[in-house]
Structures are given as C-alpha cells and as structure tokens.
Amino acid sequence: MEISDLPSFQNLYHHRAHHLNLTKTRLIPTNPNFFFSSKNHFQSQHPRRTTFHSIVCQTRNNEEEGEKLKPVESGNSRFRSKSQDFVIKKSKGKARMIWVCSSCGNSSSQWWGSCKSCEAVGTMTQMSVSQTEFVEDKSRKSWIVPCKTDGFGPQRLTDVNKGVNQLTWRIPLSGVFGAEVSRVLGGGLVPGCLVLVGGDPGVGKSTLLLQIAAMVAQGGDSGGATPVLYVSGEESVEQIGNRADRMGLGIGTEDLYLYSSTDIEDILEQAQLLSPRALVVDSIQTMYLKGVSGSAGGIMQVNECTSTLLRYAKSTDVPVFLIGHVTKTGEIAGPRVLEHIVDVVLYMEGEKYSSHRFLRSVKNRFGSTDELGVFEMSQSGLQAVSNPSQIFLSEQHFDFDVLAGLAIAVIVDGSRTFLIEIQALCTPGMPVSGSVTGIPQSRFNMIIRVLMKQAGLKLQDNAIFVNVVSGFKLADTAGDLAIAAAICSSFLESPIPNDVAFIGEIGLGGELRGVSRMEKRVIAVSKLGYRKCIVPKSAEKSLVSLDFRGGMKILGCKNLKDVINIVFGSN
Fold first, then answer.
1. Which helix (H) or strand (E) holds 216?
2. What is the DSSP string of 34-58?
3. Which positions fall inside the RecA family profile domain (predicted)?
4. What architecture does CATH give domain 173-384?
5. pLDDT tens per residue, range 153-167
6. pTM for the whole structure
7. Cα(464)–Cα(471) distance, integer angstroms
8. For the domain bounded by 391-568, which CATH number is listed?
9. What's the whole-number average pLDDT of the chain?
10. Which of 57-61, 119-123, 138-142, 169-173 holds the top average pLDDT?
11. Do 346 and 375 touch, CB atoms closer than 8 A?
12. Which residues, including other chains, have CB under 8 Å from residue 570's CB and lie 6 or more apart?
C-alpha cells in the first residue's frame, strides 16, 4: 500500500491546514476529530521525503455508520477506511549502523575489506541510519516523470517523434565558442537533459558553464533573450558577478540571473518562479536536500539531490548543468550511480601551467562520445581554437633540421584530425631517472622494449624522457610510430626533416600495423604542406592512388628497421 492510495491524504494537509497550530516539535490539532504529531516539520510540498514509522488511520466516531477500521497491511499498523478523516502518527525508530561503499553506494550490514558490488578496496564507511520505512508516492518509483500524453501506457516508436523537427529540437549555441561546445554535446543542447561537468580544481569548469549560461541567456541563433539561472554553493553572487565582469559578460546578459544557495528545495522554488531556459548548479557536492541523512557531499545527499534535479529537468524540459568535484585519481567524487543518473558526462582536462583546455565527452545519450573540444584560457575566458594543430606544433617546428628528438604524429580524436608534436630526449644515465608526459606508461615501456629487441637500439643505459606538446593526452595507438621515431632521433642524434609525418601502430614484433581512418589522416597531413608521410606497408596501396595537395609522397614500411633506414639513412 502506498501513501497515494490513502483517500484524500493530499487534501488532509492542504485543506485542513487552518485547523492546525504549528510548533517547532509537533503539529497540534484544534479539531478533536484530527490528530497529527511529528518530530519534524511535515513537508507538504515534498511528500516523497516524508518517512513514517507507523501510520494509523482512524474514522470519526460516527454511530450512524458504525464503521470499523480494516487493516490492509501488517507490520506497520496501516489502516484504511472509507472516511476521509485520518489520524497520522509518526513514531521514532531505533538507529542502526550500516556500512556503505563510498565508490558505488552499495550498503552492507557488516564491514568488508572490499565492496561486494564494485570490488573497490577500503571504501566501506560506517553510517548511522534510523529504521524507517520510506513511504513514497507513485512518482518515487522512477527518476523521470511519466510521458506527457493523455495515455501513460507504451507508445509506438513512430508516434513518439511525430511533429518533432530534429534540426530545431536542440537549443543552438552560437559563435565559434558555441560551435565547439555543440560539437562535444552532439549538435546542441537537448531540452530536459542533465549534464555533469567534471575536472581538476582550477581547470575552468565554472568559467565554461558561466559562458554557456550567458550564451543561452542572450538567445543565440534562435534570437530572443530568455532567463537562465546560475546557482552557486561555493561563491557569493558578488564574486560571480565580478568574475563575469572580468570576462566581459556584463553587456547583453540582462537575463542571466545569479543565485547563491545550497538548498535544493530553495533552488527549485526560485527556478519555478523564474521559469528559466537553463539551470546551472555549481557544484552538486555542496547541495543538500532536507529530510535526507548525511551532510552535503555525502553518498545519500549527492544521490538524492541529483535525482531531484533530474525529475525537474525531465518534467520542465529545462536543461540542467551540474559541476562535479573529482578525486585524486581524476574520477567524479561521490557514488558511481551519479554518472549513471545523468544524461551527459563531460571531463575538462588541462595542464596546470598550460593555457590549453580540452573538453571530452565520456557519456552522451544524445550524441557521440568520441568528440573533443579544444579551448584556450585567456583573460576574457575560454576561447575556442579553430585549428588545433597550430597549438600542438611548437615554435621549433620549422627548426627540425637542427633539433633532434622531434617527430609529428597524426591523431584522430572524434571527428577531428590533429597533428601533434612528440618530443624525446635520451641521455646517458640510469633508466629509472626518465619520465613520460602525455602517453600511458605501459605503452611507453612496450615501445622501448621493441626498439631494443627488434631495432637493435641499446637504450638500456639511457634515461629517456618523452613529452606530448601542450598537455595533450595521447591515447591513439597511431602515435606509436612517431614516439619511436622521436626516441630514435634523439638516441642517434639525427634530426628528422620538418616535412615528414608518421602514422602507424607498433606491434611486439616490430611490425607496423594499420590504423582506422587512414585516408582522413593522410589528407590532413597533405593540407598542412608536408611532403612525406610514413605509413604501414599494408596501407600504402590504398593511399597511393589519392591526389594529395603539393604532391606529397606516401612511404610504406613493414617494420621499425625500414623506418630507421628511410628516415635516418646509414645512421
């Protein structure tokens, strides 16, 4: 039995409120036919947050009807009658201790060294909870609201999108900056979506969302300014306003509203009054919901606050942006279920002392997760980079004839192709003194061992340093050949000509393997004026027939020895 099944229960509080005298600890009825006592204030606007230990329903003392109470469910003394007058009593439950995983939110009655759900080690923390039963209405059964049609049953797929224009369904973001953000989101901002943005402290999460909020408030390509609410639980309104003025967002953003609060109920009340086109919450770890145990940022608070915002987004078609803190390992802080609830998860990356920022989509229900947005942090905020290859090639790019240890890799990230500079340095010394920046350590170790075993380079007595320019995180295996070429160039002290690019994956036998979208990579190389491109032998035949700008040559190689002979000659 659910609380929504009780006759006129919702009307009890709304229509009989004038019969009650409210105090801090209990509700005292003046009408003898009613009785309501509660330790906490009854939240009429949020019945889903109300917990009851026992519910007792009692009819009026009506001799004519002679009606008796009929139990409908055992265990909690719940009763139901045909009368619309009820007595509801809330008793105090005993507290008990449980163990909750801080990673996934799974609970257990006893401590375990590792979580039985996510197998994380050392994440079980003790929590005190009351033995209460959550009495919930039908809306509590789902995070999202029912379909907005006359019928609540299943619908045909062909009927769902009738009359919906996919080109105008999304909220457009204008300008070069808006186009870069739209690329990562999958083509624009979807009404009613819940977007989570994570990243290291100081990387620019608040700056990014403040610029997006200002852009949506100005109306973008759709014209017509609309209100946008930016809520911060970490900064005051004055601090946000000063930051917006420094970024030059004060002009033309009359419909951008700032608010400072950490109470979800208060925030949603303001949102209902304002009816914004978008809502930004900075950050979800600072928010709390009344009636939920735990402090702000705890597992239960983060879970319930996110669920409440999700229901708001789906019921109003208002897109909601959340900023999430990250742990030392770079993951979103809080329970793993947080990333399952939201529609889109974006990560913002960037080196501490670098001005370049990368926005990646790791989850997107409305588009691809392979897209990458490239920005540059300036005094006026984030600026989109239209040609990312320019920032990945250092100023020394045209001095390759006199510098050893530099090579160009051709990388595809999402729908974009980048040319990235790889730097390597080999010096005599202990191997453990080297370091790697921008590529996985395991991949680096494999390339070193292959060069020693298959190419015959004596690298065991050298300290090797490898760096990817501009703080880019290189995960594409197509950069293996450029990494190996840069190491060979530094070890042999032989510079690589500045008109050569490298594409290919290296196998354990020293062979070169083909990679995906080879034609797209080679065409991008030719457009930037390179004259030679070294690729795996298996891909040479399909590329030779292409007409490249400037007459670029395709050089196919079977293994690393062929590459060394072609690039470095007799060295």
1. helix 205-217
2. -EEE-SS---TT-GGG-EES-----
3. 153-326
4. 3-Layer(aba) Sandwich (3.40)
5. 788 888 887 777 766
6. 0.67
7. 18
8. 3.30.230.10
9. 78
10. 169-173
11. no
12. none
